[in-house]
Amino acid sequence: MTTGTNLKDNLTVTVKEMGTPVANYDVAVIGAGPYGLSAGTHLKALGLNVVVFGRPMEFWAEKMPKGMLLRSPREASNLSDPEGSFTLDKYETASGLQPAAPVPLETFVQYGRWFQHQLDSDLDQREVARVERRDGGFLLTLQDGETLRAGRVVVATGIGCFNRKPAVFRNLPAEQASHCYEGRSVASLAGKRVAVIGAGQSALESAALLHEAGSDVEIIAQISELRWIGMHTWLHHMGPISKMLYSKHDVGPLGISRLVAAPKLVHYIPLGLRDKIRKRAVRPAGSRWLPARLAKVRVSTSRSVVSAQSSGNEAQLKLNDGTERRVDHVLMGTGYDVDISRYSFLPKELVSEIQLFDGYPVLKAGLRSSVPGLHFIGATAARSFGPLLYFVAGTEFACRELAAYIGRKRNGR
User: Fold this and answer.
1) Which is nearest to 218 in space by CA: 337, 144, 327?
2) Are 105 and 186 within 8 A, CB to CB?
3) What is the DSSP letter of 172?
4) Which string of b and e fits 86-120 if b means at least 16 CB within 10 Å?
5) Would you place residue 23 in the very low, low, confident or very high pLDDT band (cuts 50, 70, 90)?
6) Of 249, 259, 271, nearest to 390 (Cα)?
7) Which of 8, 38, 187, 250 could form a disulfide with 80 if both were Cys (CB 3.0 to 4.6 A apart)?
8) Where are the alpha helices (DSSP H) in 11-129?
9) Range(s) for CATH 3.50.50.60 in the chain?
10) Cβ contact 286:227 at 8 Å
11) CA 153 → CA 63, 174, 395, distances in Å?
12) Is the omega angle on the peptide bond into residue 240 within 30 degrees of 0, that is, cis?
């Protein structure tokens, strides 16, 4: 049972200077991916008046490569609700789907949308254009000009605007170069010569999908040898010993996996060591089911592109070993760099009030920033609480921590 007034049944309205009604919410969640949907359900369970903004699972549905498989294991691919009732298993049973491992992207997208409908999350599919501090809370302006007030704002918008594009490719036109998180159809590159840049999961899986679609693919990677996750499967089948070495989330190698599964503990580790742990846990590597799919794909390791220019309908690349490539398209699987100043809805004056380290907000208990009432969850919290927050598996910790903090503050503790 929750304490206090349930504001959903008593939605208050204030009046702007021009006389336009402005809805009041206890919490506005920006983003309707796994973190935003999960946060909305946890906060509503407290009896708070919550609104979630965004199109459900939009990034996963429209920006990730079609046909991809989730890197995370099944048990680490669940969204979080307070009772732990609406799992991937429950969705598959309800939908008559056979459980699959690894999990197909299409299944995960539909699971997220099913999750939202099952829990009746209040969802507004409009975009938030601007967030401003106002009268001890926040004023949000939506894409259509409507405004509303919220006592707290939770930013859960993911990595969509953080694509890392090496400067060497920035002068290539869009038809000749794209990032793998931009949603370019694999089918549109069928039969084309494609250079895939990178050695992480997104680059390697994109290369496999392109090869299977009939593209002439070459992977160009700076590291000396491609790495694969979970190739020593016997380490995961030693009963209690394996549980001591690896968490169910399977983020990071032996030992580190257990550490990053405890974000509160990671939070107290000095930043320098915390960064080393974070980078080691998410260094470029591909899932163990990819090598067989890449057996016939050319791989050039210890190589990097030092210049790239458009030449007619093709891109001409020069590599660090002096060789050249002529390709129809460059696909960058080069990851992302978190920088909250790139969120279009956060004005410069608000960003200037947020304590940052290298684009990440400095967060404390409750995933709260230095601006009272402003919280960040998901990848933007990974510098403070560790690499689990880069993955769907982090929704459980993030949402329980967020809800517990807001609940305490609501009750005056």
Assistant:
1) 327
2) no
3) S
4) bbbeebbeeeeeeeeebbebebbbbbbbbbbeebe
5) confident
6) 249
7) 38
8) 34-44, 58-62, 88-95, 105-118
9) 7-161+336-410, 167-227+284-332
10) yes
11) 25, 35, 17
12) no
Residue 397 in tokens = 């910790």
Res 245 pLDDT > 70: no
294 within 8 A of 208, measured Cβ to Cβ: yes
316-346 pLDDT, tens digit per residue, is 999 999 999 999 999 999 999 999 999 999 9
Q: Which of 189, 190, 195 is nearest to 325 (CA)?
A: 195
Model pTM? 0.90
- d(CA 381, CA 378) in angstroms, rounded, equals 6
CATH topology of domain 167-227+284-332: FAD/NAD(P)-binding domain (3.50.50)
- Nearest-CA neighbor of 327 among 290, 302, 294, 300? 300
Query: What are the tokens at 196?
Result: 């895939």
End-to-end CA distance of the chain: 17
What CATH number should be reported for the domain whose range is 7-161+336-410? 3.50.50.60
- Tell me the pLDDT of the chain averaged across its residues: 90
Q: Can you tell me which residue has the tokens 């760099």?
A: 337
Assigned token pair, 289: 């089911």
Fill in the amino acid letter for 29: V
Give the number of other CB atoms < 10 A from CB of residue 300: 15
To the nearest 10°, the Cα dihedral for 293, 298, 299, 305? -130
| 86-133 pLDDT tens trace | 999 999 999 999 999 999 999 999 999 999 988 766 899 999 999 999
| Alpha-carbon span 15 to 256, nearest angstrom | 52
Distance, in Å, from the CA atom of 316 to the CA atom of 11, rounded to the nearest integer, reads 60
- Token pair, residue 279, equals 């980078």
Q: What is the DSSP string of 248-259?
A: TT--SSTTHHHH
Q: Is the peptide bond prior to 291 cis by the omega test (within 30 degrees of 0)?
A: no
- The single-letter DSSP state of residue 163 is B
Between 15 and 29, name the one with better pLDDT.
29
C-alpha to C-alpha distance for 216 and 182, rounded to whole angstroms: 20
Chain centroid offset of residue 104 CA: 17
Distance between CA atoms of residues 82 and 402, nearest Å:
12
